[in-house]
Amino acid sequence: MNQDYIKVDPWSIIEEGFDAKQVKSSESLFSLGNGAMGQRANFEEEYTGETFQGSYIAGVYYPDKTRVGWWKNGYPEYFAKVLNAPNWIGIEVLINEELVDLNTCKSVREFKRELNMREGWYQRSFTALLQNGVEISVRSTRFLSLDIDAVGAIKYEITPLNQDVEVIIAPYLDSGITNEDSNWDDKFWNTTNVDSEGSQAFIEAHTMKTNFATCTFMEAKLFYKGSPVEMKPHLKKTDSLIGLSYKQKVEKGEPFTLHKFGGYTVSRDHKESELVQVAKDALFSATTLGYEGLLQKQKEAWAKIWEMSDITINGDVKAQQGIRFNIFQLNQTYLGKDSRLNIGPKGFTGEKYGGSTYWDTEAYCLPFYMATKNQQVAWSLLEYRYNHLEKAIENAQKLGFKNGAALYPMVTMNGEECHNEWEITFEEIHRNGAISFAIYNYHRYTGDYSYIPKMGLEVLIGIARFWHQRVNFSEDKQQYVMLGVTGPNEYENNVNNNWYTSYLAKWCIDYTLEQLEIVKEICPKDYARIISKTNLTITETDDWAKVAGNIYFPYSEKHEVFLQQDGFLDKEMIKVEDLDKSDRPINQKWSWDRILRSPYIKQADVLQGFYFFEDHFSKESLEKHFDFYEPFTVHESSLSPCVHSIQAAKLDRMDQAYTFYLRTSRLDLDDYNKEVEEGLHITSMAGTWMSIVEGFGGMRILNNQLCFTPRIPKQWESYAFKINFRNQIITVTVSGQYTSFEITEGKELSIQVNDKPVSLIPGKVVQA
Amino acid sequence: MNQDYIKVDPWSIIEEGFDAKQVKSSESLFSLGNGAMGQRANFEEEYTGETFQGSYIAGVYYPDKTRVGWWKNGYPEYFAKVLNAPNWIGIEVLINEELVDLNTCKSVREFKRELNMREGWYQRSFTALLQNGVEISVRSTRFLSLDIDAVGAIKYEITPLNQDVEVIIAPYLDSGITNEDSNWDDKFWNTTNVDSEGSQAFIEAHTMKTNFATCTFMEAKLFYKGSPVEMKPHLKKTDSLIGLSYKQKVEKGEPFTLHKFGGYTVSRDHKESELVQVAKDALFSATTLGYEGLLQKQKEAWAKIWEMSDITINGDVKAQQGIRFNIFQLNQTYLGKDSRLNIGPKGFTGEKYGGSTYWDTEAYCLPFYMATKNQQVAWSLLEYRYNHLEKAIENAQKLGFKNGAALYPMVTMNGEECHNEWEITFEEIHRNGAISFAIYNYHRYTGDYSYIPKMGLEVLIGIARFWHQRVNFSEDKQQYVMLGVTGPNEYENNVNNNWYTSYLAKWCIDYTLEQLEIVKEICPKDYARIISKTNLTITETDDWAKVAGNIYFPYSEKHEVFLQQDGFLDKEMIKVEDLDKSDRPINQKWSWDRILRSPYIKQADVLQGFYFFEDHFSKESLEKHFDFYEPFTVHESSLSPCVHSIQAAKLDRMDQAYTFYLRTSRLDLDDYNKEVEEGLHITSMAGTWMSIVEGFGGMRILNNQLCFTPRIPKQWESYAFKINFRNQIITVTVSGQYTSFEITEGKELSIQVNDKPVSLIPGKVVQA
Question: Where does the Glycoside hydrolase family 65 C-terminal domain start and stop, copy by copy (chains A, B) (predicted)?
């Protein structure tokens, strides 16, 4: 545990004491987001120490020109990346003409940060002794409104402790910002207008190339001794910065307070010409409510989210804090209001992983959003890919595929590929299968078939076409083989016949053929439209069936397991536990070639297939595969432990399941990978949720019915979670003694618990 | 043939007519070099059109910070690259105050370039009508002296054709130059002193980081109407440029001539403090001889080179020009005087391929230098690698190898790895074997064993150790396997059990064990020294033997061929001839993943092994392998056709052999790959030489004896080459009717021709 400076608390993340070395890590951990925008926990006032500045607007990106060592045909020319947006939180503070800067003041004491997850706000307070001898205490509270999602609010209170002083406080906007991960040090923003009106200020700027127009705005309200003060600001203005400077004599012990309202309006949602007006409207709404009124709304909105998505754990506060942190961050990142948005691996907490959407969304995040939100949210995630289908077809064409075959990108912002490492970009094609699987999973969980005839079937056809073209017939094997792929285990590159990818390919084709029959039967009009649009012929589907029926899967008779890929058994099979500690983590200690030829697995690969298609294999077979592969798995991806936790639970290995759970739930809080300063691992947080609900709770949908096989780690007294299953809200409480179920919304429901039928009636707690 | 503008001539490369689009290509084709320095055929006078400026000093490089898309552990942090050096050829010319610039003048006629390969000079002449109405003719001749290799000379003659004019001629030096392929636009040169003394000028500059100090120097001599003129120059001087400007009234029809002597002295060869003095000494020697005297020496030196290395072809002027161009460029690039130098793939003709030394040196260039130079030159090439042994051991350590295992770099300047593409840098390890093979080949050809006990055995041990550690034991196969390699065919990456690499590895170990026994026997002192230095134990060599005796080679019983790697037969085996033309070349038309999973071979892979170890396999087996692999070979490497030409000749398929020969011999002259403007393919030129001598001539060393199996393409009347075999100079002439041999230097020699013994006596022409 490297982050012991974070206090354990069930509802808050708390840091006490100032340590400059922790600033960047805390900037990640205390990040705020409201689905529409987000920001790292950068200080409002000047800070000349090490910091990683980041404000982000959902869906606003920049296509940076690709930079590689050696160009390979097929690389995308541009790499869309998350863009650091103009800063609206900045507040310059001078006390008797000395700039407040925690890096240069004489001393800092009583430094504390709190991220209140229950209510959705972040507070920082400290007492600083300045070079000029003045001691001040500062308390800054801020939140990004869920209610008016263009707006955030800051309450910044300064109290001189040892003398009367002159305070100059200057809230400002700044569009002269850069990205840390820029490839060519291009300028990403072009500022077109910097303006103020009384206590309001506006910066209009648009992104280069993508031309997203934005208005970054703010309004300042000042209070002295608790009462509003009307002051005329002194204006500070440059090409890309505007500040409103207020001067006030402040008596010792009296608080001088700024309420700063700020945020963005964006041309994604409004006409460019109206951005300033929309900003003014938002400020009007926010200031009418006032800081406290807006905060009250914030608390109510978060209460509603928690009401549906909270997981409680009794008897383990660390675990409680961990799971809530995960749920909180997922809700800060994506709320499903806008099908153009998706879930970036770092959310609004950093720049890394350039583009925003990975297969993480379909494989890990969808179950969380299906179970804790209304159905429309999951639909939005599926619709996102439907809207990118044309681009996926273009992407496949660039790689030589024909006839409407679709390859979804490894990483994307707008449907275009944004990744440039050949072994991943061109070869980690299993991502395509996860998109078909998500369609299946959505139907399985929600029972809603309407997505498939409306949108899903076209996606399924494009993907099936891809797989059909991607295999080739091996004369030698007299079977179809899939050469040159990278599986989920990225510690292997360019392998032949990766079992997971081939199995998924076969399943995608089979499932698509099945859905074609169903849609033909029940939605003949949709069927006719889709057949006509895609030019699908019987010859083609017959060819698909031929491939799906005769695809090669590497298998070891001796070990009775499917092999991760051809040649896996040629490796030097030393188990992870027999490696010297100095060799771990191998991704830091070993050269890349050594990693590649080793048997070590970065994240579930064959076992990912056993997770997706659990019902295709017996528990005995799962056990054989788990026992064969887990000992070689180094879990150096944040997405690995959750799948293993779920499977260990299924195999009744609760100690192991719990160990895996711990790694996933406090990955960032405890900074296992020593990289939290770059941002949080948002998508893997959904895996944590799965570990509890699907792993410990054993939730499944089998034969169209909700089923549970509850288990509990011996370290816990009890835990409880809620799910929205087909518009019934069900609370599940698991203790060592019993499991109880309660429908809090909805009608009667028949479920299975440990393979036995149980009837749930609204309002009644049923033990099973 | 894309370069039809180059005239066919047996001894010269000639361009007639000015075409701005051809300037960059011609700058490559007409490049000059003398082993110590070189330069592209840039114009001396101002040229504002498209040009690629390049002057290079042998062994002077810069470690540019590596730039990659995604960093992989083990990548070198710096990438040494060939450095564009200060320009000493520049001459500014003003006619009645108008700057002569072929890009802006009214018209250019009678533009001609000639590279006289027999005598080693380059001449350019033209008549230009300037904007101001003056017509001038210019003739510029230059060469880089083989005699005083710090010095080059230019004779620049200007004759006004239609009126008397005022000429200002300003020879200059310029260190304000850049590299086209800089990664971060770093400044590579720091100029410390710019100075002049009468008609001499000097710029002292050193490279950043590597701190090579250089003095770039020049001296000007002027002649009017054929007589020397003494003039005081007007000085032009900046931080990084110095020019000596001379003004002269020139009558219509009279030549005004500048002799410019220039070049470099370098801290690699002299004390930094003496560089200016050494430069003055060199200028004194050069100017004492004078331009004509120095040119006379140049002709004599080249005559001597041709005397030994010329190949004559009767009945095919294009082929004659092609082979001479190859031989000429090899001699311009490397003369074997300095074992710190080597043969860069682009020689002194461009920047590409950053570092200078590839496995090309050992696999392709060594035979040429062994047979056309004295033995010391080949020794220097071997010594180069011996001197880099420590760095090769460090390089292996970085990748996790232990105990003195050595991995020579893929690309290097100073022994450090300079390549950063994981599938090549870390995996194209067969290069290591080529270095052992070169040691064997040197002994086989020269009969000189002394290199092995003195230096070679240590290299062999380091390499054997690498192979021993690089394989692992497959429990499944009960054999040693080599996973995750890239063979010579770079259209496959990260494959298992590449036959060529594994076979070479086995051979390296066997050969090293054999040499250990021999050195122990015949040089016990050296043996003791080496064993002590390397800590080699019996246990270790026993382990080596175990690996070499049980290494796995993929083999197809059905096809009776060794397989290029595991899984090769799973590919979709469509022959190259059945591909659509629009698919070729695949490296331009296909995405990288598609290339990788295709069966197409970039350059000889299994067949490279059959070339190296020809005596291990029957001709029938060669034929089977040739017929199996050649149809899938796209020859998209300049190193591919020569090996195929040699083997086709051996199989008596002379038409095919000749076709391959043509592709290799005029690769640059005819610009097959449409990239000659980036520089010439120097190392593959040695392959051309091999195609004639080993391919058509069938030269081999078998059982310590020189052997020939001569053949001749039906397109040729006869051809002749010379070789230095163990200090006997033998001329071999092959015609359709007979082959004749003559020893021009040396004593009696018994050789084999078509498997029959033939005795050669000095001075006597023997027909066989």
Answer: 699-760
- What is the rounded CA–CA span in Å between residue A753 and residue A768? 7
Helix ranges (DSSP H) in A195-316: 275-309
Nearest by CB to B477, from A68, A570, A597: name it: A570
Amino acid letter, residue B444: R
Is the distance from CB of B62 to CB of B209 less than 8 angstroms? yes
Rounded Cα gap, residues A426 and A428, in angstroms: 6
- The total of structural domains in chain B comes to 1
- What is this structure's pTM? 0.93
- B1 falls in which pLDDT band (50, 70, 90)? very low
Give the pair of three-digit tokens for residue A141: 């509270």
Query: How far A514 CA sits from the closest chain B CA (Å)?
Result: 29
- What pLDDT does A1 receive? 41
Handedness of CA B59, B61, B66, B68 (dihedral sign): negative
Domain boundary among A309, A339, A369: A309
Q: Are strands A705-708 and A749-753 parallel, antiparallel or unpaired?
A: parallel
Q: In this structure, are strands B728-735 and A12-16 parallel, antiparallel, or unpaired? A: unpaired
**A111 domain residue, yes or no:** yes
Q: Which residues 417-456 of B have a C-beta within 8 angstroms of A?
A: 420-423, 426-427
Determine contact, residues A704/A79, Cβ cutoff 8 Å.
Answer: no
Cβ contact, residue pair B569, A595, below 8 Å: no
**Residue B706 C-alpha from the chain's centroid:** 26
Beta bridge partners of B135: B129
Catalytic residues of B: 490
Taking one residue from A and the other from B, the number of pairs with CB-CB distance under 8 angstroms is 127
Which one-letter DSSP state was computed for residue A556?
A: E
Residue appearing with tokens 């239609």: B162
Confirm whether A257 is domain-assigned.
yes
Q: Do B591 and A73 touch (CB under 8 A)?
A: yes
Q: Are A426 and B592 in contact (CB < 8 Å)? A: yes
The reply to whether omega before B757 is within 30° of 0 (cis) is no
Q: Tell me the pairing of strands B151-160 and B135-144.
A: antiparallel
- Which residue of chain B has the CA closest to A559? B476
Quick one: pLDDT at residue B72? 77
- Other CB atoms within a 10 A radius of the CB of residue A189 amount to 23
CB B258 within 8 A of CB B220: yes
pLDDT score of A734 more than 90: yes
CATH number at B282 reads 2.70.98.40
Domain-embedded: residue B517: no
**Is B484–A68 a contact, with Cβ atoms under 8 angstroms apart?**
no
What tokens were used for B671?
């610009």
* Residue A475 to residue B569, Cβ atoms within 8 A: yes
DSSP characters for B157-213? EEEESSS-EEEEEEEEEE-----TT-SS----EEEEEEEEETTEEEEEEEETTT--E
Q: What is the pLDDT of residue A462?
A: 98
ipTM surpassing 0.85: yes
Give B535's pLDDT tier (boundaries 50, 70, 90): very high
What is the separation, in whole angstroms, between the first and last Cα of chain B? 37
Mean predicted lDDT score pLDDT of chain B? 95
Instruction: With H, G, I as helix, E, B as strand and everything else as coil, classify residue A707.
Output: strand
Q: Which of A454, A668, A707 is nearest to A3 (CA)?
A: A668
Q: What's the rounded Cα separation, in Å, for the pair B120 and B113?
A: 14
Half-sphere exposure of B254 (CA within 13 A, CB side): 16
Give the Cβ contact number of residue A343 at 10 Å: 25
Query: Which residue in this structure is represented by tokens 């990288």?
Result: B592
Two tokens, residue A649: 């639970």
Query: Nearest-CA distance from B409 to chain A in Å?
Result: 15
Give chain B positions within 8 Å (CB) of A184. none
Domain with A40, as residue range(s), is 31-309
Q: Does A70 touch chain B (CB under 8 A)?
A: yes
**B 383-422 near A (Cβ less than 8 A):** 398-400, 420-422
